């Protein structure tokens, strides 16, 4: 039996990259998936490639109204919501001296506030269904220092994961965070960054960057009933970087 047979999942930031990889694996494992993103053209294309068990909904993850619409459309299309993967996020390569307040608030809204809104939006449907799994994509920089703004918000994702897990566990909802290291997404391995990534990979204990599918396998485990006794926990997938 497929590991997500009969489950309905919402995955944010799923038009491409990591989110699309998660959606593809979820579909292969029997789930019905609602992909969301601001990139409507790419999102529609990805959903079409995944077939009848996928739909795309354009979403601004910082909008409470958009979150309500996504959950409503998921229930309308597939009858319920079992899984939420809060995958959408951004980073910004600016120092604390150069970053504006507007820059900082943008990162906070997309990386942190969206996770709060997502949990709040899906929880009633999950409570009605009797159980659910929420997977918040943080980062290794939710455990150790990195870029300002990005690090701050990824630590916050780790915190809200624990707080929500404690509150929602009695209602059958599990909440966990995933902390990836360097992943070979198109953004990371594009020509202008490829050499730098290859050099950095020498410092990773495993000796290479991760493939998106490796992270997707971990997200799949947390979305499935196989992880039924895991909640409020950090799952690190960084090739040993934070162990140094």
From TrEMBL:
Pfam families registered for this protein in UniProt: adh_short_C2
Organism ancestry: Bacteria, Bacillati, Bacillota, Bacilli, Bacillales
Keyword entries, A-Z: Oxidoreductase
Molecular function, one GO term: glucose 1-dehydrogenase [NAD(P)+] activity
Family recorded in the similarity comment: Belongs to the short-chain dehydrogenases/reductases (SDR) family.
Name of the featured protein: Glucose 1-dehydrogenase
Species name: Kurthia populi
EC number from the UniProt entry: 1.1.1.47
Classification via InterPro entries: NAD(P)-bd_dom_sf, SDR_fam
